[in-house]
Amino acid sequence: MVKLQEHPLLKKIIENRSSLTPKGRILSDFILSNPRKVVFMTTKELAQACEVSEATVVRFVVQVGFDGYSNFQQALRDLVDTEMTLVDRVDLTDMGEPGADRFRHEVFKEIDNLKQMYRSLDIETIRAAASALHDSDNIFVVGSRLSFTLAYYFGWQLTKIRGNIQILKGSDSTSLDRLTIASPESLVILIATSRYPNELIRIAKHVRRMGHTLIVISDSSLCPVNGFARHVLVAPSKHIPIFGSTASLTCLINYIVLELSGRYGDALKMHQEKLERSYRENDILFNLEVFDG
User: What residues does the HTH rpiR-type domain cover (predicted)?
Assistant: First the structure.
């Protein structure tokens, strides 16, 4: 596992330390020593812990390259999330809370996560990715562990609006075979959620070697497969999940599918009519008329 101090975010703090004021260096030392604590601190709490003013905290985050404290804290949150074990995550949760309180907290966390995604995502970036999907003859959707659930969901939705969709599981080594023999015009969508399985990193490298177009949908700007992609869509979470949080990514996938659907015109109707005929002919889905009969 990569040491926290070797991570790009904290390396940035270390590299800027010599140019900081004495109080700024106090802040940098505290953050480097306590990243898991700082990620949950407000500017006031961090200032009190380091015995400096809140204004000093605000100046510090600007000096190390961030527009504001919320952006700095999001980057720190992404950093901490990538290296926390299952035991660490459970320790973050108060298992002794009453059930109703825990339910409300979880709902409000997901609302916070959706707001964070809404504020951070650029619609034009999503539309550019949708254009690449529309223009590609063959599409592969790849995921692993938790992200395979999202990959299957995304791939399943895409089959409802167009053909030539294949869903691959990253843990299956034959995925590399199928990507190797895929036509040069193929597009690969890789979905990655922390803690980022190494098999997805191998697949991202392989996709680049094969010359395919890669779209990465991830939950963090620090995701290790982002750098291999032509298009990167990040749906960040404001909170660190215990086992995983998919609400924001699912919402993003739903929007991409709707954006793409509007580009097929009459071809979409023909495609869906063909599917519906198959459902009826093969008695695939529940039919109320048949049931009543």
Answer: 7-83
Using the Cα atoms of residue 149, residue 150, residue 151 and residue 155 in order, give the sign of their dihedral: positive
Q: What local confidence, expressed as pLDDT, does residue 48 receive?
A: 93
d(CA 145, CA 63): 38
Taking only the tens place, the pLDDT of each residue in 219-272 is 988 889 999 999 999 998 877 777 778 999 999 999 999 999 999 999 999 999
Report the CATH architecture of 4-83. Orthogonal Bundle (1.10)
For Cα atoms 196, 197, 200, give the angle at the middle one, nearest 5 degrees: 95
The CA distance from 203 to 191, in Å, is: 11
Please identify which residue in the block is written with the tokens 């990715």. Answer: 129
Any residues with CB less than 8 A from the CB of 1 and at least 6 apart, and which? 83
Q: Give 94-148 pLDDT, tens digit per residue.
A: 555 666 677 888 888 889 889 989 988 899 999 999 999 999 999 999 999 999 9
Residue 151: CB partners within 8 Å, gap ≥ 6? 141, 142, 143, 167, 168, 169, 189, 191
What are 195-220's pLDDT values in tens digits?
A: 899 999 999 999 999 999 999 999 98
CATH code reported for the domain at 120-281: 3.40.50.10490
3-state SS of 105-160 is: HHHHHHHHHHHHHHHHCCHHHHHHHHHHHHHCCCEEEEECCHHHHHHHHHHHHHHC
- Domain boundaries along the sequence of the chain: 4-83, 120-281
* pTM for the full predicted model: 0.78
Measure the CA–CA gap between 55 and 287, rounded to whole angstroms: 64
Taking only the tens place, the pLDDT of each residue in 166-196 is 999 999 999 999 999 999 889 999 999 988 9
Bond into 195 cis (ω within 30): yes
Number of CB atoms found within 10 A of residue 25's CB: 15
Query: Tokens at residue 252, please?
Result: 């993003």
